[in-house]
Amino acid sequence: MLIDGTERAASSGETLTVHDPATGDSLTTVAAGTEADVNEAVDVAWDGFETWYGYTPARRCEILNDVARAIRDEKDRLARIETLENGKPLSEAVGQVERCARHFEYYGGLADKIEGESIPLDDGHVDYTIREPLGVTGHIVPWNVPAYLFARSVAPALAAGNAAVVKPAEETPVGALELTKLLHENGVPPAAVNVVPGEGVPAGSALSGHPDIGSVTFTGSSATGREVGKAAIGNLTEPHLELGGKSPLVIYDDADLDVAVDETIKGIFATNSGQVCSASSRVIVQSEVHDAYLDKLVSAVEALSIGPGIDDHDVGPLVSATHLDTVAEYLEVGREELGEPLTGGAVLDREGYYVEPTVFADVPQDARILQEEVFGPVLTVSTFDDEAEAIQRSNDVDYGLVAGVITTDMGRAHRFARDVDAGQIYVNEWFAGGNETPFGGYKDSGIGRENGTQAIHNYTQLKNVCLNISE
């Protein structure tokens, strides 16, 4: 772990083994943090906060931009680490490290622009607001996009003047440790960012329930998010929860089917093997083009290459043997509910944790494999007849993270955006938007928004000052 800039063992002496999902082989070991380690990291972070918040906003801006440049200089090495830990194609990992750098750049640009407001009351008063940092913030980072999601919460927290304690996922801790070293090497005080790898229990639960942090940011499953939220609220700590998704991609009969297939592939198969909360995991296609769409889709899916991410195949392995078992169980659920998939459906008999890209067709709305988040390369395809049914099917799940529509009718697209219960609406492109656009969900998909200027509000508290200036 990395506390006050020093690499150290866990207080218990225990370690975690990090595996290469492409082979199942051990890559390295890291410290397995305990509650005592988290407590120490939080204590140290308060010292780091005093130093970091003492810097002028302009100085914090300069440092965070230096961090962004350093990450870009190390982009190839950091991407290789992400691929070896996570399994994703190397070109995708390069893109995610670039997004990580861009996040520090973006919030570096905001560090000296966090402003309050003047509120007009009457001639006898001056009233204004101040945005102040929370102090120490907690960050529980998932394994699916580890570099970018490290930056997504740590960068705005630092821009606002906070210090941070980070608990990376046990599957992918190395990238967080290496990123933090770059922060320290480029001007962030060592005590201001501390990393405690470890299991969800004890390390994650100790951080989410710590009484001396101002907020906890968690990205992961809805079930775990509820527990993190309960632990935080128990201390009146503000939780920011970006949770699961079961996101619909609606394809109308006026859609360019080649575009529709490309966006489907990108959304569920060619991005981290479907291990993305915002994956386009269920397609709802208008009946008139259902058969033509499926013909094109199956041809495209069967042309995808599957193999080690380090060799930059289209589809890499799943992150772990445990997760492979989970996805394999859903494949069997799908077979029990629906019969054989249209294509794919096999766990590959080779080293590593590989599942074929899989498409189940003609899936009813109440099927488990349509309603539940699989978090793998498994797609359901359903049909609809008219616009009302498309909206109804889109909304008829517990999640509300993302929804997309492919159509040339912009009136229809805007009605879709108005009527679908999701935090992000994509039109004619999946994964639209960027670091600058707010991201988060409705319903079981979470609480709060990351990205954009909105994220600064997650890591500040508002103070009102009112002065009586009457004679």
Automatic annotation (TrEMBL):
Any one Gene Ontology molecular-function term assigned to this protein's record: oxidoreductase activity, acting on the aldehyde or oxo group of donors, NAD or NADP as acceptor
Keywords, alphabetical: Oxidoreductase
Q: Where is the active site?
A: 242
Which Pfam families does the record cross-reference, listed alphabetically?
Aldedh
Q: Which InterPro entries match?
A: Ald_DH/histidinol_DH (IPR016161), Ald_DH_C (IPR016163), Ald_DH_CS_CYS (IPR016160), Ald_DH_CS_GLU (IPR029510), Ald_DH_N (IPR016162), Aldehyde_DH_dom (IPR015590)
The family annotation for this protein states: Belongs to the aldehyde dehydrogenase family.
Q: How does it assemble?
A: Homotetramer.
| Name listed for the protein in its UniProt record | Aldehyde dehydrogenase (Acceptor)
Instruction: Give the species.
Output: Halogeometricum pallidum JCM 14848
